[in-house]
Design a protein that fits this description.
There is one protein chain. The chain has about 525 residues and is an alpha/beta fold. The chain has eleven helices and 20 strands. It has helices at about 90-100, 100-105, 115-120, 140-155, 175-185, 250-260, 380-385, 400-405, 420-425, 440-450, 465-475; strands at about 125-130, 160-165, 190-195, 220, 240-245, 265-270, 280, 290, 300-305, 310, 320-325, 330-335, 345, 350, 365-370, 395-400, 430, 455-460, 485-490, 515. The longest helix has 14 residues, at about 140-155. The protein is elongated. This is F-box domain-containing protein. Pfam families: F-box (PF00646), LRR_At5g56370 (PF24758).
Amino acid sequence: MCCLSPSSPSASATSSRRGQIVASEWPPGPSSGSNPHPEGPPPGAVDTDGEEFGGRPAKRDRPESGRGDAVRTADRPAGDGRDRISDLPDAVLLSVLSFLPLRDAGRTAVLSSRWCGLFDQSLLDFNACQPFPPEEGRGCDWFMHAITDILAARPRVRIRSFRFVMYGRGFDGRLDVVDGWLGALARHGLRELDVDMFYAGPRPTLPESLLKLASLETLKVFNCRFPNAGSAPAPLLPALKILDLSNVDVSEESLQAILCHGTSLESVKLKNITGADKICLRSKSLTRLYGDFGDLKELVVEDAPNLEELVGIGLPSGKAKVKIVFAPKLQMLGYLGISVRPLVLHDTVFDGGIVQLRTLMHSVKTLVIQVPFSEKGYTIFVAQLLKCFPCLEALHVEPDKRSISRRVNVEEWDTENSIQCIEHSISRVVFECFGGEDCQWGFLTFLISMARALKLVKLYCWTGKDWASDQLELLDPKNRASPDAEIQFFRICKPISDLYLCHCCTQRCQKENRVALI
């Protein structure tokens, strides 16, 4: 998330598109007594007689458009003194500025009126990242003073996105300064805000002016305390579409206010949230809700007519009650496990027993479940759960952690009892953390022998190619209900955060961490 610059040669000498290093020299603005947009020519420009001030022959004037004159640059003799960089189009120069530290990018503003305008355009995506490790004299106070001066010097420059990263004490005790930034950014028409107090302790509280950013569409907050939104007038953040909170302290009242009163909210991602024990979702606009939810006591989807994806990764390891009352467009649901009790679908409690007709959820196409191989009766639980989703097309499976670390009793699967989704609609199966244990093989062979519409099986494991080849030989095509189904083994190269595995959302798979074995 954060941009950590190497210690050599200098932390302030490096940058990237994800974060630029602010340094002590930035372009002078009105606050420092100089004009950032001079109307006259810069020092060294030609006068009306064609001679440079001082009597020396003047350099040939170059067009401000950046396209050059009638003579091609390639045709000019080397060493003719022409500024070939300024011949480049604005788009190319802006791309170059985006790779520079903010200090160096700002210095270009004194070259000419064109370069000054280019620097203003580069602030469209304002990346402010505190130097790490901090250089002498460039701590939190200096960093915040730099941002304040830049915003004050350019009150009319458009800023579309603002990314702000700090370390150490963060802005603890200087809430008024950040409040002033948010007020200025609101006037700039800010659309995206990313705040990360990396390794800041204690977590600083964001000012309530955050909730007044009427044009804000994307909000990402990491390692902070969310402002109190319970008493704020509705609608809150009326243009907000994407909300991403990670390691954030937020009260249940504030979280509820954002979810219910965000009239444009489409996607919410919550990770390691503290302060809220219950989520009761009532939103006409929300389409995706992701999170770990391991510490929740209750998750209720009361009225979500456009909700399509609901994924709580930590639900099987917690003790949350899950209740889905009204979500007619829900297509992806997970993680469900034997510990998610009670599970209420519509108005019926699912307890692993007989499935009633009104319990069925025909809209769900993708289901993520944690199979409790270490629990007695896991075959009955999984079979009855799958009956609640008769139109299922993709099944993602994860074994419970206890079955991976120790031997468990293997139960026989009932092949006589019909399960509609397995026999008629499931076309894809994804098995995470596949280790080849007998209990896992039993479930896999059961699915393959029953699924007539199956087209693809993906098995993610920690072992090598030889092991995968041996496992594949055990899956005899003669025992498959769909002989043409393709079976693929993948090796996970390094641990991946649970929140970003394949089946959490459409962008979740990190392909660089997965290698095809066969």
